[in-house]
Amino acid sequence: MADDAAGTVRIISLALFLAASASLIIVGELLARKRIRPNRYIGVRIPATMRNPDLWYLVNAFAGKRLIWVGAVLAMLAIGLFLVQRMAIDAYIRVTLLGFVVLAVAYTVAALIYVRAVSR
To answer: Which of 75, 85, 98, 114 is the most exposed place for a label (fewest CB within 10 A)?
Structure first.
């Protein structure tokens, strides 16, 4: 019975990670294609990009391409770790979330470095 519950939690966790990955890929694609206008919710929202629409589209196209990669790598990580049958469910969730945090930090740093480089 406990194994069935753990298996169900693993499958639900995988589904949630894949849904998050798909969301990142979709938003990344929209940003990369310059389909998202300056707003308060999605994109690199710093004073420089909010003041200058040209900079907004330039920076967010750059960031969107990287966000697609973040989503793809997160999906591969979630699937790869899911296939490790001996990994405990809590370890699976923690390692996958840690991977997401590392990817998110790298994405943010890359975007901010790019903003700094193009706004000089």
So the answer is: 85
Residue holding tokens 């890359």? Answer: 110
The whole model's pTM is what?
0.92
| CA atoms 33, 37, 42, 48: torsion sign | positive
b/e map 106-120, b = 16+ CB within 10 Å? ebeeebeebbeeeee
CA distance 22 to 25: 5
Per-residue pLDDT of the chain (120 residues; tens, 9 = 90+): 567 888 899 999 999 999 999 999 999 999 999 999 999 999 999 999 999 999 999 999 999 999 999 999 999 999 999 999 889 999 999 999 999 999 999 999 999 999 999 987
Q: How far apart are CA 95 and CA 84, in angstroms?
A: 12
